[in-house]
């Protein structure tokens, strides 16, 4: 995060979170795996996950857009795509209790990553920072993230800063081989003086944080 422009291009990511009716979660996942290819012909899907821990009956998916005009064109095309509307969207809407979306940018010091192999788990951590933006807390936050990266126990996938939605929100996505591997790594990291110091400097700017353990759907590019 920087005191100047966030990035050198207009690419942004739409983060969509759906709360699914508890009795319909299995049905929704099956429909997504079967029909999401009808959606991805219109724009790029980064990842699609279901929550395993930290939330229940929730799915999170991220879509990449070149700019806002691109998103507008995609949404218009989707509204006119009878195949997508009929096979997935109309039936799926009856399974969803609540929808939420945010627009976010990748922070300029982070490239969107990929896991070294398939079959692991993702941790989605949401930090609500104090008002003031990156000019206030960006440097300390970056140092805290890099301190965890440098321990080597986890893989950083992406760091996103909200543009629309709840402001001063940062979403961080990590990948680990398993929940056990994550737990052991975090235990070691919290005994690392470099991590402790970096977190101590960053946490003074923190309002709240929460996390979820996510499992990628079969249709997700990130697995």
Question: Which features characterize this protein?
Answer:
223 residues, alpha+beta, Alpha-Beta Plaits, 2 domains, eight-stranded antiparallel barrel
Structure in words:
- Belongs to the NipSnap family.
- Residues 13-111, 122-221 form the NIPSNAP domain.
- It comes from Nyctibius bracteatus (Rufous potoo).
- This is NPS3A protein.
- It holds the Pfam family NIPSNAP.
- It is a single chain.
- The protein is an alpha+beta fold and 223 residues long.
- It folds into two domains: 12-104, Alpha-Beta Plaits; 106-216, Alpha-Beta Plaits.
- Helix content is 35%, strand content 34%.
- It has seven helices and eight strands.
- The protein has helices at 25-35, 37-40, 68-79, 82-93, 134-151, 179-189, 193-203; strands at residues 12-20, 44-53, 58-65, 96-106, 121-129, 155-164, 169-176, 206-216.
- The chain has an eight-stranded antiparallel beta barrel.
- β6 and β7 (169-176) form a beta hairpin.
- α5 runs antiparallel to α7.
- The two termini are 27 Å apart.
- 27% of the residues are buried.
- The model is unreliable at 1-5 (pLDDT under 50).
SSE arrangement:
Elements: E1 12-20, H1 25-35, H2 37-40, E2 44-53, E3 58-65, H3 68-79, H4 82-93, E4 96-106, E5 121-129, H5 134-151, E6 155-164, E7 169-176, H6 179-189, H7 193-203, E8 206-216
Antiparallel strand pairs: 1-3, 1-4, 2-3, 2-8, 4-6, 5-7, 5-8, 6-7
Helix pairs in contact: 1-4, 5-7
């Amino acid at each position: 995060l920087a005191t100047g422009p966030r990035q050198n291009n207009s690419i942004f990511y739409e983060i969509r979170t759906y709360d699914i009716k508890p009795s319909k979660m299995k049905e929704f996942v099956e429909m997504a795996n079967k029909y999401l290819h009808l959606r991805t012909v219109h724009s790029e899907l980064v990842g699609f996950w279901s929550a395993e821990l930290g939330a229940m009956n929730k799915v999170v998916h991220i879509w990449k857009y070149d700019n806002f005009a691109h998103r507008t064109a995609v949404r218009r095309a989707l509204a006119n795509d009878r195949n997508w509307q009929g096979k997935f969207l109309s039936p799926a809407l009856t399974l969803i209790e609540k929808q939420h979306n945010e627009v976010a940018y990748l922070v300029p010091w982070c490239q969107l990553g990929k896991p070294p192999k398939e079959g692991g788990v993702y941790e989605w951590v949401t930090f609500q920072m104090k008002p003031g933006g990156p000019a206030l807390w960006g440097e300390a936050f970056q140092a805290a993230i890099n301190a965890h990266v440098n321990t080597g126990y986890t893989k950083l996938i992406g760091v996103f800063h909200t543009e629309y939605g709840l402001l001063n929100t940062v979403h961080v996505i990590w990948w680990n081989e398993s929940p056990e591997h994550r737990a052991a790594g975090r235990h070691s990291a919290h005994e690392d003086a470099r991590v402790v110091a970096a977190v101590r400097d960053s946490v003074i700017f923190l309002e709240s944080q929460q996390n979820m353990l996510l499992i990628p759907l079969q249709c997700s590019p990130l697995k």
